[in-house]
């Protein structure tokens, strides 16, 4: 487990893709904006194994304006179906620009924001251990293709169910902040299947296998209002991880029982959400669906993100049969030290992909919203907490 200083004790723990590895001359935005852009981050990679044995990372590339503020306005990148990529200008006196990734607009009576970057998805093929780049598939990049994702496509999560690859993404637009689904037979050529979850339901993770003949998925609906648990409850109000089932991976019904909830006893999981698609495996002598998820401790603008794990019942996946209250992973400051001049957030690790490699798991994460991190975690590091069933 990592220490508070971010020094790693994992046998393998390294960055495999950084902003400098991205060739923006091959970006979907190349040549379309009369201003300079740069890679704010190449991070939060979905991961799966290709038929040839290599691993595939589908990386979120956040392409940002080098100077979003000029002419007394702050600017956002937007995809338009007639004009392609355009800039929208907002008067500075209407905007809060404290966060370099986005700005909040005043005067609506509720929270409204726009982005100084636009995200697209880049498939990156790596070796079976995840540690070396084999090929960057610029020709397979996934970019906005409709008004429902005019502010970008974010955070791919890939599950292989039978012979079919399913990829959920977040599509961002003024219409809605939705979950969109893509499918593939080879994990490189993707077909858009449509919107499957509506406004602000994020971090959708499809289980890698059917249960009772149905598809299952973890979801995380957001909102501005949550109702309080009783004062002596082991949980507290806030975003939680829910679970849903589907006959076809397109139409989802929320399960009536709760799933993974934030713990009242620690600020480290004040806000939680999904991480890696659940895979069927064995942990500490128990077989079940392994779910890595993130917990956020409030701190400054973004918070401190850590990775936790839970093992779910193989037949009744809404039930947690084992978990560990200490974090499995934390941000590793040593990894990003060479990129210090590019850092804009710290204390963030966001695990987004997992592959079973026998005696260990290969885990893909976004590090500091900046780069892609690969960690080999031995299976004997998954030690359940006593009484840890939530």
TrEMBL record:
GO molecular function: glycosyltransferase activity; hydrolase activity, acting on glycosyl bonds
Pfam families according to UniProt: Glyco_hydro_130
Matching SUPFAM superfamilies: Arabinanase/levansucrase/invertase
Listed InterPro entries: Glyco_hydro_beta-prop_sf, Mannoside_phosphorylase
Keywords: Glycosidase, Glycosyltransferase, Hydrolase, Transferase
Family named by the database record: Belongs to the glycosyl hydrolase 130 family.
PANTHER family to which the protein is assigned, alphabetical: GLYCOSIDASE
Name listed for the protein in its UniProt record: Glycosidase
